[in-house]
Amino acid sequence: MQYVNKYIPTLTKFVLLIVFSLIIYSYSFGVGFEPESYRLKKVVIDAGHGGRDSGAVGKKSKEKDIVLAVALKVGEYIETSFPEVDVIYTRKEDVFVPLDERSNIANEKGADLFISIHCNANPSRVPYGAETYVMGLHKSEGNLDVAMRENAVITYEEDYSTKYEGYDPNSAESFIVFSMMQNHSLDQSLNMASLLQEEFRDRARRHDRGVKQAGFIVLWKTSMPSVLVELGFLSNPKEEDYLITSEGQTYLASAVFRAFRAYKEQIELKSSYAAENSFDYSLDQSKSEISATVSAQWNDNSEYQLTELGTGLTYRVQVTASKNRIATNNPFFKNLENVEIYSANNMYKYLVGNKATYEEISEICEQVRELFPDAFIIAFKDGEQISLDKAKKISQN
Question: Which of 76, 135, 286, 379 has a CA 20 to 30 Å removed from the CA of 257?
Answer without folding.
Answer: 135
